[in-house]
Structure formats: structure tokens, C-alpha cells
Amino acid sequence: MPENTPSGAGRLPHGFRMEMHAHPEGQLVFAAAGALATTTERGTWVAPANRLTWTPPGFQHAHRFYAETDVRLVAIPVDRCAELPPHPSVFAVSPLLREVLLALTDRPESRPGASDRLRAVLVDELIETPEQSLHLPEPADDRLRTVTDLLHADPGRPATLAELGRAAGASERTLSRLFHTELGMSFHRWRTVLRIHHGLIHLSNGRSVTETAIACGWSNPTSFIEAFTEVVGQTPGRYASLAGFRYPKSI
């Protein structure tokens, strides 16, 4: 599937990347199976198999896909984009949204205007759907970036903020303030979301809940399940079953 493809469907292997690019139209990306991460200058959004990503027109972005991904791409005409957020977002996929996405990408247009009508339904449903963003913002401050780079390299790292601060040449108090002012969340919350991102990837690759919990830095599966459910909105076991689902009509 070419990087500049605005619409379509396909199966992509684990680790497949679409490098930084932009579209003149808006774009929705849905992983009917698997998971994807969308990265922009504002950070990374992860969409497991029960969510989709929205990227506005002209917004530079890259994608990476995890596990064998049944990916669906839908272009949204510019004249409908103003009804959706002006920034990248993640939305929950209701049963109706899922069926519309699959219909738009599974078969050719049966009658003139049918695809436009389905896209109108898609936009109308998204307007009524609250954002459920698994957004991980990235810092501009060099000291804070040193800390986040260390955690990206090893999400399970048990270091405290004070210990990480010594590597960054900044105090715990300074870094704590920067997490709130630059990233809009606490150090603990940012690291939790980072670990959940990696947890989604491990689960999509078939690792067990216990293996994933340990790999991502939790001391026991129960703590991981509680954190995962709070952030993602479903248990790891439920997510894993959805991520591995294969639709019979997939291309």
C-alpha cells in the first residue's frame, strides 16, 4: 500500500511503517485487526483494534503498524473536515462505525453517490463520538527529552524521577514542573501511558497478559490490568481478543 494512498484496505506486516507525509484531504485509519501508532510533531497516538485515528488535511504524520494489521483508510473531503477536530485524534469505534468503515473499504461503489453517503454517516457518527485519545505528547525541553528518551528505550525501567533527573542534569522538582507545563500530565501519568502503548503492542503480538505486565514494568498482572482498563477502557484480555479478530471480507 503506497504511503500517499488516501483510501483503501490491505494487510500489513508487523512493523510496517508509512514515513512522514500529508494528504490534501482528511484521513481516517482503522485497524480492523492489529494496532497502529500515528506520530506527528505533537506526539504519538495509538489506536488499538477498537479505535480509529483522525488526521486533518495537510497535517504531517507517520504510521507504524503492529502485528499483522488489517488496515482500512478512508479519505474525508475537505468540505466535511471542519466538522471534525482540527488536530489528530482517536475515536472509539461503535458497531455502526465499524460496519460503515468496512463497507467503504471492502467493496466497490454499488451506485453513484453511495460512498459519499456512507462518508456522511461516518462524519455524523464521529461528531457524536467523544475522543478517546491514547495520546503520548513529546517534549521540546532538552532535559525533559533526555528523560523521555530513556523511558522510550526501556518503558519498564523502574527509576524514579529523581534518578532520571541525574542523567538529565535537572532536579526532580524542575522535571515534575516541566511534565505538567509542557506535557499536561504528571510524570507518573506519562510513564503509565507510555507503558500502555507498549502493552498494546505486546498484546497485539500475542504475548500473554502476565508477560506483557512484566515487560512493561508492572510488578504484578493485577496492577497492569487495572491501569490498562482505566486508560484503554477494556481489559487486556478483551483487547487481545479484538486485536486478533479477522474479518472474513478483509482484503
From TrEMBL:
Q: Which Pfam families match?
A: HTH_18
Could you list this entry's UniProt keywords, alphabetically sorted. Transcription, Transcription regulation
Give start and end of each HTH araC/xylS-type domain. Answer: 145-242
Concerning PROSITE patterns, the annotation shows: HTH_ARAC_FAMILY_2
Among CDD domains, the record links this protein to:
cupin_NimR-like_N (cd06124)
Q: What is this protein called?
A: AraC family transcriptional regulator
Phylogenetic placement of the source organism? Bacteria, Bacillati, Actinomycetota, Actinomycetes, Micromonosporales
Gene3D superfamilies, alphabetized? Homeodomain-like, Jelly Rolls
